[in-house]
Amino acid sequence: MPRLKGNTKEIILEKSLKLFAKKGFEAVSIRDIASEVGIGNSALYKHYESKQAIFDALVTDQKKKYMESTSFVTDEIRGVEAVKEACLKMFEYQTENDEIVCFRQLLLIEKFRNPEMAEIYREFFVNIPLNRLMTIFSSLQKKGLMVKGDTYVFAMELYAPFYLFHFVEHDKDIKEKFQLHVENFSKYFIMSGS
């Protein structure tokens, strides 16, 4: 077999994710992955001991990338424009990054069959975004830049429309509509920052 260019473990993860997103975790075999990567089964086993080990590595890898790409320093979030930028950055990553889109597709396929995958889906696409927003809102409230209230409820109010669009194709002008959504939310709850 020809020699792979790049890190074989990363290539295995990349190809596995695409296969899992297309067919579902259960429908993909080690043989399918090895064939897609262009290596033999035994060579794949040198890198990962099982298909579950590949999935576990994917979860770890995607969580690391997700946290890095949606991290914002809450001390720097001051007012409407910073909140809008943070929200749009999070939504763009969730809907435009090929890897996270494939990961979401995989979890959507499997979450009805596998409670573990349902929990991972909830962690990535509900808990993490809501917790990020709650952290921002708590910081803004402490600085006197946001009305006092339940940060969880505020986070749900702001995030729900973003979450809804995970499930449907959206128009090209959706970003402008989300900007308006954040601006409307901010008009009622967030004061102008310094």
Layout of SSEs?
Blueprint: H1 8-23, H2 30-37, H3 41-47, H4 51-69, H5 80-96, H6 98-110, H7 115-142, H8 151-164, H9 174-189
Helix pairs in contact: 1-2, 1-4, 1-6, 5-7, 5-9, 6-7, 7-8, 8-9
List key phrases describing it.
Arc Repressor Mutant, subunit A; mainly alpha; Tetracycline Repressor, domain 2; 2 domains; 194 residues
Number of strands: 0
Count every helix, treating DSSP H or I runs of 4 or more residues as helices: 9
The gyration radius over C-alpha positions equals: 20 Å
Q: For the terminal residues, how far apart are their CA atoms?
A: 61 Å
- The helix-and-strand class reads mainly alpha
Q: Residue ranges: pLDDT <50 for 5 or more in a row?
A: none
- What is the CATH class designation of the largest domain? Mainly Alpha
What portion of residues is helical? over 70%
Please identify, by name, the CATH architecture of the largest domain. Orthogonal Bundle
Indicate the overall shape. Answer: elongated
**Major β-sheet annotation:** none
Strand content: under 5%
- What name does CATH use for the topology of the largest domain? Tetracycline Repressor, domain 2
Order of SSEs? HHHHHHHHH
- Number of spatially distinct domains: 2
Mean pLDDT: 87
